[in-house]
């Protein structure tokens, strides 16, 4: 099966992420999208991170009932911080018959030279890249296997924006699925 891996902190997951996943399923040959929740991005501070199991549960709530979407906790058991190439090697060994590709926003795509073994990743995996505002420039990476640029609809929201709103006591209704909002509010996350 052809699987798109959507790596992220998902701190928390929001409609921007979900819209991309749906766009991928409807407009590419990928058959499933797996959200890989990263406990710790190597390039981001850990300070504002909600516990990884809570973030995973929020993803599960967000995708409940969607057969083509899955939430993965595999990086929880791998060494931290989470290097994408290590996770890819692990997944390929665990699911030898699946063909994996990597989905990312242009912010992550611009940052690729800072990633561990980025050349290996680019040479061996197809990437599905969509443009995010203020990250319009797409660098050219010679030797890359296959880079699909998507014109996906983008919502001008981010997890940072959502955390900020919660801190300021502003509603996050409609920015995240309702089940996610209720779970965040019930537990007082990010406040
Ligand atoms: N509104 C959005 N539309 C499309 N993609 C998004 C959106 N927000 C984040 N992404 C992408 O989702 C992936 C995971 O992102 P991440 O979990 O860091 O979300 P984020 O909203 O960018 O988080 P933060 O604001 O905490 O940095 C990244 O590839 C990022 O480019
Ligand atoms: O492998 C790396 O060197 C690397 C460097 C930066 C980010 N990543 C991964 O990219 C994903 C997106 O990160 P984030 O925090 O922007 O959602 C997340 O899974 C990170 O672990 C991976």
Task: List its traits.
binds nicotinate mononucleotide; six-stranded parallel sheet; single chain; 191 residues; alpha/beta; binds adenosine-5'-triphosphate
Indicate the CATH architecture.
3-Layer(aba) Sandwich
Would you list the SSEs in sequence order as H and E?
EHEHEHEHHEEHH
**Ends distance:** 41 Å
CATH topological fold name: Rossmann fold
Task: Count every beta strand, where a strand is a DSSP E run of 2 or more residues.
Answer: 6
Proportion of residues in helical segments: 25-40%
| Poorly predicted spans | none
What is the rounded Rg?
16 Å
Going across the biggest sheet, name each strand in turn: 3-2-1-4-5-6
CATH class value: Alpha Beta
Number of helices: 7
Strand content: 15-25%
Q: Structural class per helix/strand content?
A: alpha/beta
Ligand names: adenosine-5'-triphosphate, nicotinate mononucleotide
What overall geometry do the principal axes of the alpha carbons give? globular
Provide structural commentary.
This protein has 191 residues and is an alpha/beta fold. The chain has a single domain, classed as 3-Layer(aba) Sandwich (Rossmann fold), CATH 3.40.50.620. The chain has a six-stranded parallel β-sheet, sandwiched between helices. Helix 1 links the parallel strand 1 and strand 2. Helix 2 runs antiparallel to helix 7. The longest helix is centred in the first third of the chain and has 13 residues. Bound molecules: adenosine-5'-triphosphate (ATP) and nicotinate mononucleotide. Its EC number is 2.7.7.18.
């Amino acid at each position: 099966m052809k699987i798109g891996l959507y790596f992220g902190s998902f701190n928390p997951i929001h409609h921007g992420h979900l819209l991309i996943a749906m766009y991928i399923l409807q407009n590419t040959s990928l058959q499933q999208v797996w959200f890989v929740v990263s406990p710790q991005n190597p390039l981001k501070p850990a300070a504002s991170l909600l516990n990884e199991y809570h973030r995973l549960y929020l993803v599960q709530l967000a995708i409940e009932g969607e057969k083509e979407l899955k939430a993965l906790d595999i990086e929880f058991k791998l060494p931290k911080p989470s290097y994408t190439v290590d996770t890819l090697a692990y997944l390929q060994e665990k699911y030898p018959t699946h063909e994996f590709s990597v989905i990312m926003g242009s912010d992550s795509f611009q940052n690729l030279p800072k990633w561990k073994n980025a050349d290996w990743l680019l040479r061996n995996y197809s990437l599905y890249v969509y443009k995010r505002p203020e990250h319009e420039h797409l660098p050219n990476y010679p030797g890359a296997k296959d880079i699909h640029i998507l014109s996906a609809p983008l919502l001008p929201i981010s997890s940072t924006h959502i955390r900020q709103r919660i801190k300021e006591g502003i509603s996050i209704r409609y920015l995240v699925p309702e089940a996610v909002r209720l779970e965040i509010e019930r537990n007082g996350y990010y406040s």
